[in-house]
Amino acid sequence: MPPANVPNVLTVGRILLVPVFIIALLERTETGDDVAAAVFVVASATDFVDGWLARRSEQISSFGKLADPLADKLLVGGAMVALVHLDRLALWVAVVVIGRELVVQLARTFAARQGEVIAAAWLGKWKAAIQMLVILLLILVVPSPGWLDALVYAMVAITLWSGADYFLGMRRAMRSGDATAAT
């Protein structure tokens, strides 16, 4: 059972908001996109608030270090699949982003089984923020103008860059036996 603290409750709440968000986004109503955007903003905000609270109140837990990135992957992955279904995002973009997220999550799980909990680095935090911004814009700005298409390409680039950075940090951490080397 995860430690019951506010950051962990926010993380679990974000996971529970994912299906609500996806249903709202896929619902073919006048307000579906607006509701989906609002739920997405709330869920995205919990990503930043839970980490800040955990650090500030010294309630960082192994559960939070593993569940927080998983919640992000579910939110971003679900959004990408729904946006592809709605023809608002190219399939290859979703495959690259979701593929990177799955590989990093599998690596994070492997490291945890080896006794290493690899926290997200600053580049991973920027990647998450950019992904969430792009997803929000793809929900709200239909059809997608050229500047938003360029932002999608920038998102893909930072996603790949942060993945490479994660694996380099993980390699250093696993070699030295110090999980802080990847942060």
From TrEMBL:
Cellular localization per UniProt: Membrane
Keywords: Lipid biosynthesis, Lipid metabolism, Membrane, Phospholipid biosynthesis, Phospholipid metabolism, Transferase, Transmembrane, Transmembrane helix
Any coiled-coil regions, as ranges: none
PROSITE patterns membership: CDP_ALCOHOL_P_TRANSF
EC number(s) per entry: 2.7.8.5
Principal EC category: transferase
Transmembrane segments: 6-26, 119-144, 150-168
Protein's UniProt keywords contain Membrane: yes
GO MF, one annotated term: CDP-diacylglycerol-glycerol-3-phosphate 3-phosphatidyltransferase activity
Source domain of life: Bacteria
Membrane disposition: Multi-pass membrane protein
Family: Belongs to the CDP-alcohol phosphatidyltransferase class-I family.
Protein name: CDP-diacylglycerol--glycerol-3-phosphate 3-phosphatidyltransferase
Organism placement in taxonomy: Bacteria, Bacillati, Actinomycetota, Thermoleophilia, Solirubrobacterales
